[in-house]
Amino acid sequence: MPLNSPPPLREDVASVLASAQTLVRRIAARQDGIEIKALDAARIPGVLLDLCLEHHVGIVHLVSGRMTGSAFALLRAQFEALVRALWLHLCATPEELQAFANSDHLPLKFGPMVAAIESHPSFEDKVLSGITLNAWKAMNGYTHGGMHQVARRIKSGSIEPNYEPEEVIEVLKASGSFALMALQQIGRIASDEVLVSDVGALLRGTKRDLAIRPSPNSGYGGRLCLPDDSVSVSRTERSPMGVEGDVVIGT
């Protein structure tokens, strides 16, 4: 199958993907031209927030190109960039910020970092800790090639992507919400109250989409079982954008 002919998406996935592509364009338009002071206390968190936004764009492009496993793997990197940025901006002392700048060292592990952020009034809704509780283990599995990935790459006796449409929708919506949270924090760093307010209104309607719930058999955090069948390798489901020709594995 030619790689520039992606297989069709289920209608609801295609709709969510179209909305995600629109969100990418809207965030880019709002982010363009925002000024952040040339101080490490603003600049370093700002850089990580920008990285979070870039990961969102990457996830949307990867899903569009049917590179679903890579999109799922990138979600942890996006969430981690967001959390690190928030902690450095809201919680870090000048000494801790300098230690990070000088030696890439953070004094807290991920869970305590999230707890510190949620002591701030802007994050008292505990959304971040809910995501960490419900999805962090799965995020690690997708990123590091664990069983969450393995279980979704066997289909009808072939080694090929087998991600549920509902899981793809979860990832697109979660990534979009992370991006909006990053954009809002950029607005706070830049003292752009209009941006903070506008994004806050959007987030009130989207944070419910961050309720990623693990289950034994389905969802982003579920399904770790493998079929018993023997398998062969297939590339019929992949379609990276702008690439033509067939991919051959092996010789």
In short:
By secondary structure, the chain is mostly helical. The chain has one domain. Helices cover 59% and strands 2% of the residues.
Observed structural traits:
single chain, 251 residues, mainly alpha, three-stranded mixed β-sheet, 9 helices, 3 strands, disordered C terminus
Notes on the structure:
The chain is mostly helical. It has one domain (11-233). The chain contains nine helices and three strands. The protein has helices at residues 11-31, 40-64, 68-90, 94-103, 110-117, 127-143, 147-150, 165-189, 193-206; strands spanning 154-155, 158-159, 232-233. The longest helix is centred in the first third of the chain and has 25 residues, at 40-64. The protein is globular, with a radius of gyration of 19 Å. Mean pLDDT is 84; it is low at 214-218 and 224-251.
Decide which structural class fits the backbone: mainly alpha
Can you give the helix content as a percent range?
55-70%
- Indicate the overall shape: globular
Strand content: under 5%
Q: Which residues form runs of ≥5 with pLDDT under 50?
A: 214-218, 224-251
Number of domains: 1
Count, helices: 9
Sheet with the most strands: spatial strand order: 1-2-3
Compute the average pLDDT: 84
Please state the CA-atom Rg, rounded to the nearest Å.
19 Å
Distance between the termini: 18 Å
Largest β-sheet summary: 3 strands, mixed
**Sequence of secondary-structure elements:** HHHHHHHEEHHE
Number-wise, the strands total 3
